[in-house]
């Protein structure tokens, strides 16, 4: 029995050894190799497309809107338009409109050319009055004064007579002949042949009096300063 047990143990040991050798003899499991790329051309195309898109975006960010060719085209069109406008003849501008006048008031009329008037002329008194007015408006007060003095006021209506006297007094005042001017102004104001001119004559006398009083006061002040 003892021999049988030893023989069984030996047989088990041998079997175990043989089984171990059999397991060790089997080759280890090997992973399958990685699959090669099936479509390398497709991948390359996608990469190239991404690179092209990136370059296009960078170009859009770097350049202002509109390409160089478009800007050159617009510049050429603008130059052509400027050239065409410069060659076009402009129509003459319309004359300026006169300023509006008040209702019931005639627009101012430029004075006519001053006619020559001498004592030897057989000119009518009305023409002489007009000549004196023209001299006065043009600033030739001396010629106006001579013309008004040559007019025979007896041949004129009372309104025209008052006008000639009033204008004569205005000429005397402008030539600094104040005493003679005041006498004629006073005559026009007293006779009242023309109510309108009579009121103006009174105003002229009041203005002359105020100016004379002011000059007198100024002279007194100058005298006082000199005496101090």
TrEMBL record:
<keyword id="KW-0732">Signal</keyword>
<feature type="signal peptide">
    <location>
        <begin position="1"/>
        <end position="24"/>
    </location>
</feature>
<dbReference type="InterPro" id="IPR011990">
    <property type="entry name" value="TPR-like_helical_dom_sf"/>
</dbReference>
<protein>
    <recommendedName>
        <fullName>Tetratricopeptide repeat protein</fullName>
    </recommendedName>
</protein>
């Amino acid at each position: 029995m003892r021999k049988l047990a030893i023989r069984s143990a030996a047989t088990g040991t041998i079997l175990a050894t043989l089984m171990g050798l059999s397991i060790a003899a089997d080759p280890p499991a090997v992973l399958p190799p990685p699959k090669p790329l099936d479509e390398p051309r497709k991948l390359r195309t996608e990469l190239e497309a991404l690179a092209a898109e990136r370059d296009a975006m960078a170009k859009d960010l770097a350049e202002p809107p509109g390409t160089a060719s478009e800007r050159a085209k617009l510049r050429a069109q603008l130059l052509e338009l400027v050239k065409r406008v410069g060659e076009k003849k402009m129509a003459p501008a319309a004359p300026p409109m006169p300023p509006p006048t008040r209702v019931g008031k005639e627009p101012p009329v430029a004075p006519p050319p001053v006619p020559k008037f001498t004592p030897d002329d057989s000119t009518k008194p009305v023409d002489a009055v007009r000549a004196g007015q023209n001299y006065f408006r043009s600033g030739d007060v001396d010629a106006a004064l001579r013309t008004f003095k040559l007019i025979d006021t007896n041949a004129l209506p009372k309104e025209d007579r008052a006008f000639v006297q009033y204008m004569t007094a205005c000429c005397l005042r402008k030539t600094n002949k104040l005493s003679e001017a005041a006498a004629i102004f006073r005559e026009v104001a007293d006779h009242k042949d023309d109510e309108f001119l009579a009121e103006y004559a009174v105003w002229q006398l009041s203005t002359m009096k105020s100016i004379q009083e002011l000059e007198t006061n100024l002279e007194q002040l100058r005298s006082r300063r000199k005496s101090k």
